[in-house]
Amino acid sequence: MWVTDMGWIMGPWMVIAGLANGAAIATYDGVPNHPGPDRIWEVVSELGVTILGLSPTLVRALQPHGAEEAHRHDLSKLRTFGSTGEPWNPEPWWWLFRDVGRERIPIVNISGGTEIGACILSANLLQGIKPTSLGGPALGVDADVYDDAGMPVRGEVGELVMRGSWPGMTRGFWGEPERYIATYWSRFPDTWVHGDWASVDEDGFWYLHGRSDDTLNIAGKRIGPAEIESVAVSLHEVVMAAAVGVPDKIKGEAIALFLVPAPGVTPDDALTAKVEAKTDETLGKAFRPKTVQWVDDLPRTRSQKIMRRVVKAVALGNEPGDLSSLENPESLEGITTLG
């Protein structure tokens, strides 16, 4: 079972790959936390799910309720956690692996895209797994990490790219072939630029760092929103975070941080100061948020991806655009337009 819908690639994948491999598929209609925070674990237990796919955002939403909610149910048949959709933060990754899975269930992290029709990166269990990592390029994919000049880099963050062709690739945009070429193929010769920041460490493990078009440029220094958000959600008082760039007269761009408090937590100035201090300590004072806004929820797709684009548009008083993919459009009402 993958917690997703048919409009995202993991929905068709679950059905097509599951049936092609002779597997039974578990489905249910509803949200993951109703009627209670143990809803997912109840379904896993009742249906005997062996492979459970989750997004990091969903795990962050389940974490404040505690691993006890999971252990109220029999998870003995569960042998693999699947993960895709966005970068991991270390704290939720360890919570899922250590507290829920009790270090028995591996987290198989993959990354691709609906327009890819396949994985770009995929964990290889024979290689082992590092926390929050992906293994490496998937079968049939010539992936790499490029710097701004189109040269491969290791040990630093760059653009995730693919050379040549691969199984399942998109042929174009319906009725807009020029926009397809401009979007993916125009930056480097014969190279697909996926729009994700990635890196490869000294042991050959790959990591994602968020969308490159979400990147913030603070006083000439680039940083991905996931790095800032990871600092915020490392605090037990914060369950969800979105970092976006907003105009700033001095720095050019500054950080606006939108946070969802954990259940039972009432945010105040002291908690805001704690978030700012943690950011200073981890990233440096240059990346201290210009503003911190506490909200009840953040706009998410049905696959639980946080829509930073929408957060930024509402915060700046701009039209948010197409909201048809949002699971919770009412969350926009809690975002205050920045002065």
Domain count: 3
Gap from first CA to last CA:
44 Å
CATH T-level fold name of the largest domain: GMP Synthetase, Chain A, domain 3
- What is the mean pLDDT? 91
Q: What is the architecture of the largest domain at the second tier of CATH?
A: 2-Layer Sandwich
Topology:
Blueprint: H1 10-20, H2 39-47, E1 51-54, H3 56-62, H4 68-71, E2 80-83, H5 90-100, E3 107-113, E4 118-122, E5 136-137, E6 142-146, E7 158-163, H6 177-184, E8 191-200, E9 206-211, E10 216-218, E11 221-223, H7 225-233, E12 238-248, E13 252-261, H8 269-283, E14 291-294, H9 308-315
Parallel strand pairs: 1-2, 2-3, 13-14
Antiparallel strand pairs: 3-4, 4-5, 6-7, 7-8, 8-9, 10-11, 12-13
Describe this structure in words.
This protein is of the alpha+beta class and 339 residues long. It folds into three domains: 1-105, Rossmann fold (3-Layer(aba) Sandwich), CATH 3.40.50.980; 133-214, Luciferase, domain 3 (Roll); 215-334, GMP Synthetase, Chain A, domain 3 (2-Layer Sandwich). 24% of the residues lie in helices and 24% in strands. The strands form four sheets. A five-stranded mixed sheet has the order 1-2-3-4-5. Strands 6-7-8-9 form a four-stranded antiparallel sheet. It has a three-stranded mixed sheet with strand order 12-13-14, with helices on both faces. It starts with 9 loop residues before the first helix and ends in a 24-residue tail after the last helix. The model has no long low-confidence stretch (mean pLDDT 91).
